[in-house]
From TrEMBL:
GO terms for biological process: regulation of DNA-templated transcription. GO terms for molecular function: DNA binding. This is HTH luxR-type domain-containing protein.
């Protein structure tokens, strides 16, 4: 959607004019209105205008895009069968071979802004995480823009979070979604990869596609999933809030009162923090914790 249309949508949702003829009086250019109507954000009946909830519109668009992506394997095969046209598609079978294929393509054309959708942690845990740092190490710039989306229900235990920590240490930004429909990989300016069977995870076979139109469609879908997801936040240890209050000058007793716990519990958490930071005194603990959280204030 164009920027003028987006600006007009914001103004329309603020003013809610009932008729198209009312737009000039509000200082609004109705030129981009037809684009909003085609996208489903606005409905025009005669001269009357009505408005739909943006989230509902985007959900319908995402559903339609998902449906189209689901039939991309069939569409691509039909495209390849046409005697005068070809689409560069590489079929890769087996999870380990798929990971090796990523490394092979990255060596030829370094990743620029990859995003991966994972319906579960299976492949990440078993195949990708053990060698991720070594494989992506040569591409620090591309991995700085790398992203991953997983379902929130897949990240529950400490072992699950350890897998996510591996992703984050290599530079990926991670978000959690309510649901991830299918595995998908998109690097809009380089290539995309789709499962041969939509929704199958882990996909036993994938196709790697360089066609610009398919890359753009896949990127648009991945971006919709990313925007609807929430940022993953590393759980903080129990001693974090104790140290935060300690840094404010509060005594152990005052911290215990503020947290509705015992002073002995506060002292235990301070001891755990000292072990975590490998320091021997509270002064050293304060220095170590302050250095790590210098940007939190």
């Amino acid at each position: 959607m164009t920027e003028p249309a987006l600006r007009l949508l914001v103004s329309l949702l603020q003013a809610r004019p009932a008729r198209r003829a009312d737009l000039p009086a509000l200082g609004l250019d109705d030129g981009p209105l037809d684009e909003l109507i085609r996208a489903g954000f606005v409905t025009q009946t005669g001269d009357r205008l009505s408005y739909d909830e943006p989230a509902a519109v985007l959900a319908r668009q995402a559903h339609a895009t998902a449906g189209l992506i689901a039939v991309l394997p069939d569409l691509t095969r039909e495209w390849q069968n046409h005697p005068r046209t070809t689409v560069g598609v590489e079929l890769v079978h087996g999870h380990e071979e798929q990971w090796r294929a990523w490394a092979r393509h990255a060596a030829l054309t370094p990743p620029r802004a990859p995003i991966n959708l994972y319906p579960s942690l299976d492949i990440l845990r078993d195949v990708i995480a053990p060698s991720l740092a070594d494989v992506v190490g040569p591409y620090p710039e591309g991995m700085r823009h790398a992203r991953a989306v997983l379902p929130a229900a897949a990240v529950v235990t400490d072992d699950d979070r350890a897998v996510i920590d591996v992703l984050i240490r290599t530079g990926l930004r991670v978000r959690l979604a309510r649901r991830v429909e299918s595995w998908l990989y998109s690097d809009p300016e380089v290539l995309c990869a789709l499962p041969l069977t939509w929704g199958e995870h882990p996909p036993p076979s994938i196709m790697i596609v360089h066609d610009p139109a398919i890359r753009a469609l896949t990127a648009a879908y991945c971006e919709t999933v990313w925007q609807a997801a929430a940022q993953y936040r590393t759980p903080k240890p129990e001693f974090h809030d104790v140290l935060r209050l300690l840094a404010l000058g509060m005594s152990d007793r005052a911290i215990a009162t503020a947290q509705c716990t015992s002073q002995r519990t506060v002292e235990r958490r301070i001891a755990e923090a000292m072990a975590h930071y490998d320091v021997g005194t509270r002064f050293e603990l304060g220095m170590a914790w302050s250095a790590e959280h210098v940007d939190e204030g």
